[in-house]
Design goal:
3 helices; 8 strands
Length: about 200
């Protein structure tokens, strides 16, 4: 049964709140869990050697996983992003000032992260799947706030703006095939009902 407008608003608002309240604290103090916030890639994760510095040259993202852009640099995958935050980024403190969300696609088809266009012109996911509570939708989330890099308490706060597209975690539906859910449960990934399909972060000050 399709969601009513009120249902969709409630679901998207609750998803956005839970995401903001867990993702930014993870950037500060639980960086080893960052990959669990992202749409799983259908390809093998890249190695540490393939990680690209945020300050380095733009690289091409791999297919089948999330699209991640940090200050204009394309990060290949979630594993590379986690490596950057664990090994290259200084300690950071994020202060979210505001966020807003809207349902992007109320009939999102859950799959492995690939996107196609239906005959009606609606963007869909890959393999079909179904979530509990009729959460088959994609959500666009806009976040703004301040971030301070480094341990010094008098370091300057810098403004940031960030856009996400959140989608239901495909492992929660079995859409990625047998056996993948068990692996996700071991890593805690199944705790994420919603994961990042697209991310665009930019410092604005």
């Amino acid at each position: 049964m399709a969601n009513t407008s009120a249902d969709a608003t409630r679901i998207s608002t609750e998803a956005a709140q839970r995401f903001v309240e867990s993702y930014y604290p993870a950037l500060q103090s639980s960086r080893a869990t960052l990959t669990t916030f992202y749409l799983p890639s259908s390809s093998s994760p890249s190695t540490t050697a393939n990680a690209t510095s945020i300050k380095g040259n733009t690289t091409s993202s791999t297919g089948g996983g999330p699209t991640i852009v940090i200050n204009g640099n394309v990060i290949p995958d979630a594993h590379s992003l986690q490596t950057i935050f664990e090994q290259q980024m200084p300690q950071a403190r994020y202060e979210v000032q505001s966020y807003d969300c809207h349902v992007l696609n109320p009939e999102y088809v859950i799959g492995g992260g690939t996107t196609s266009t239906s005959t009606t012109g609606t963007a869909t996911g890959g393999s079909s799947g179904s979530t509990k509570d009729n959460k088959n939708m994609s959500i666009i989330l806009t976040v703004s706030g301040y971030v301070r890099y480094g341990e010094a308490t008098n370091a300057a706060m810098r403004g940031f703006s960030e856009n996400f597209v959140l989608v239901p975690h495909p492992w929660n539906t079995g859409a990625l095939g047998p056996g993948r859910g068990a692996a996700a449960e071991k890593t805690g990934a199944l705790k994420r009902e919603w994961v990042i399909q697209t991310q665009n972060f930019r410092l604005v000050v």
